[in-house]
Each structure stands twice: as C-alpha cells, then as structure tokens.
Amino acid sequence: MLNWFQALLPKEDNFFRLFDAHAQSLVHGAGALRQMMNGGPATGEWCAKVVAHEEEADEIAREVLFAVRRSFITPFDRSDIRGLTNSLDDTIDQMQKAAKIVTLYEMRDFSPKMRELADIAVECAALTQEAFGLLPAMRKNHERLAILTEQITNLEARSDDLYDAGMKTLYEAHRHDMTGGNTLGFIIGSQLLDHLEKVIDRFEDVANRINGVLVEHL
Predict the structure, then answer these.
(1) What are the Cα distances from residue 99, in Å, to 7, 136, 138, 191, 199?
(2) 140-162 tens-digit pLDDT
(3) Range of the domain at 153
(4) Which of 50, 197, 188 is nearest to 120 (CA)?
(5) Does the residue 34 lie in any domain?
(6) Mean per-residue pLDDT for 101-108?
(7) Rounded-to-integer distance, Cα 189 and Cα 173, Å
(8) 1 in a domain, yes or no?
(9) Over the stretch 160-176, which tens digit does the pLDDT of each residue have?
(10) Residues 58, 19: Cα–Cα separation, whole Å
(11) Is residue 41 part of a domain?
(12) Is-contact 213 138, C-beta < 8 A?
C-alpha cells in the first residue's frame, strides 16, 4: 500500500522536468518577441504567438505550484521552487505585456533599439534555459551556473544603456510633434521600450533566484 501511495506522488526529478519546460517557454516567447520586432504585416501573428507561449508558461507554473503542495520530497526548499517559478512566469508575463502594447496600438514599425532589446531577451532566454538544465547537478555545475548568471546580469546592464539610448532617439524623432501637443507617438513608443527593458530585468531576477539556490545548497 505504501509503495502504491508513493507512486502517486510527484517524483523529485519531475520538478526539474517542469523547470526545463518553463525555461523552454521563455525561449519560444523571446523568439516570438524578436520576430514581432521585425514589424510589417506579420506583426499581429507574432504577438499572438507571444501570448500563446505565455499561456503555456502559466499552465506549467500551475503544475509546479500544485506539485509543491502535494510533494513530501522536493529537490530544494519549497520557497525557492516557488520563487524560481514565479520569476520565470513574471518574465514571460512581461513579454506578453509588450505584445499587448503592440496589439493595442497596432504598431507595425519598430526602432533599432527596440530590436536590440529583443535580441538581448533572446540571449537571456538561451542562457536561462542552459542554467535550468544544469540545476539537477548544481554542485557539479556551480561554476558554469555562476558564469551564466553573471552573463545575464551583464546583459541587463547593456539593456539599461539601450533603453536610455532608445528613449533619446524616440524623443528626437517626436520632438517636433510634441511641441504641437501631439505626444501620442512618444508615449506609445516609450511604453514599449519600458516593457522590453523590463523583460531583461525579469531575466536578471531569475538569475538572482538561481544564485540564491546555489548559495543555500553548496
């Protein structure tokens, strides 16, 4: 009877499987976000794909949090599992917010700085996916994990500079419109830049969560 009951419980390695799936959803979401930034008539399709990947990530997050509640054994502290899951979910939620702005205002043209921020999101997603793949053997892989999280932090610093440059370019492009009282173009563009920059911020949050787990378990 005990063996039968234990077979119904989530296995420890299932958490890592779900983490991998969650990180993969960020890779797909970031890829769709970058395609969205190419603009043109396909923009709406890529917005819809970002939203679809966000919904997939939500399902995975719910499965992880449910597994935490019903598991006797977890690979590490339950609060860390929840924190990692929430930070992953916040990241793709931020991508969805960027797509929402694009959809709401029917944007079809995007600045080079916006595309560069999306490029950084793609880089961060790949680094994040690699990091989660190393977590099952975190003691063995701690040096590589430290490198990956540092790379994400460095990319976040680059995104801050890109955001500032993008805002400056946006202001220059709309300065004459603004003197006439037409601020809509600047407002919409600045909202999108803000969401794109926050996507990278959320990736840094994930990296910080990973570092926290490493500190506790090494």
Answers:
(1) 42, 33, 34, 11, 12
(2) 999 999 999 999 999 999 999 99
(3) 10-217
(4) 197
(5) yes
(6) 96
(7) 11
(8) no
(9) 999 999 999 999 988 87
(10) 12
(11) yes
(12) yes
Distance, in Å, from the CA atom of 108 to the CA atom of 41, rounded to the nearest integer, reads 7
Coil, strand or helix at 24 = helix
pLDDT for residue 58: 96
Mean pLDDT of the chain: 91
172, amino acid identity: E
Q: Which two tokens stand for residue 217?
A: 């378990």
CATH, residue 16: 1.20.58.220
Are 37 and 118 in contact by the 8 Å Cβ rule? The answer is: yes
Name the residue type at position 125.
Answer: A
> In the structure, what pLDDT confidence band is assigned to residue 119 with cuts at 50, 70 and 90?
very high
Count how many domains the chain has.
1
Flag whether 3 is in a domain.
no
The full DSSP string for 125-179 is HHHHHHHHHHGGGTTTTHHHHHHHHHHHHHHHHHHHHHHHHHHHHHHHHHHHHHH
